[in-house]
Amino acid sequence: MTALTSLVYMSVAADDLTDDQLVAMLREARLRNHALGVSGLLLAKGGRFMQVLEGPVWSVEDRFAAIERDPRHTGVKSLSRESIATRRFDGWAMAFGSPTGDELRDEPGFSTFLSDRTGLPTGVAGTPADWLLRWFRGRDLQDLPEERITLGRHAA
Ligand SMILES: Cc1cc2nc3c(=O)[nH]c(=O)nc-3n(C[C@H](O)[C@H](O)[C@H](O)COP(=O)(O)O)c2cc1C
């Protein structure tokens, strides 16, 4: 059986990305992720990103290395890395959520987790990803200085 991993990171958007730029990024990400067997969820809010990447270890690490180098964001910090037995975001080639999402609702993969406070896939309940995504949704991140964002004991 292929070893699966789940990685969660957070980062700071370099500029205010327009909805069009976000959609272009999402489409690109979904294509590559699908090809590589990576699934997950990308949230954008208050000038910050949080993303869950899950799949075979090598493809998650390959995507994460590419993402870390991307100039569209800075301060990429991994918050959790777990070995997982089964996928939790099966079929989510990369779901994407933003607080209003008005322009994005019709986009394949749009997630209403932030805009309508809908739930996550059932397999996520009680995992670090669950906790981190809910934290990101509940927290007012706008204008929060980077150093004020602390997430408990150890970053992965
Ligand atoms: C916040 C953010 C999330 C991204 N998520 C993904 C992703 O899930 N999958 C992906 O292939 N690229 C994603 N990208 C784009 C990558 O950073 C990178 O531009 C792309 O994978 C091409 O890199 P490569 O040519 O080195 O493979 C993301 C970029 C940003 C800024």
Draw up the topology in text.
Layout: E1 4-13, H1 19-36, E2 39-45, E3 48-56, H2 57-68, E4 73-84, E5 95-97, H3 128-138
Parallel strand pairs: 2-5
Antiparallel strand pairs: 1-3, 1-4, 2-3
The structure holds flavin mononucleotide (FMN).
Strand content: 25-35%
Between the first and last Cα atoms, what is the distance in angstroms? 25 Å
List the helices and strands in order.
Answer: EHEEHEEH
Bound ligands, named by name, code or SMILES: flavin mononucleotide
Could you describe the 3D structure shown?
With 156 residues, this protein is an alpha+beta fold. It contains 3 helices and 5 strands; from the N terminus they run βαββαββα. It has helices at residues 19-36, 57-68, 128-138; strands at 4-13, 39-45, 48-56, 73-84, 95-97. Strands 4-1-3-2-5 form a 5-stranded mixed β-sheet, sandwiched between helices. Strand 2 and strand 3 form a beta hairpin. It is globular and about 40 Å long. It starts with a strand and ends in an 18-residue tail after the last helix. Residues 4-95 form the BLUF domain. This is BLUF domain-containing protein. InterPro entries: Acylphosphatase-like_dom_sf, BLUF_domain. Pfam families: BLUF.
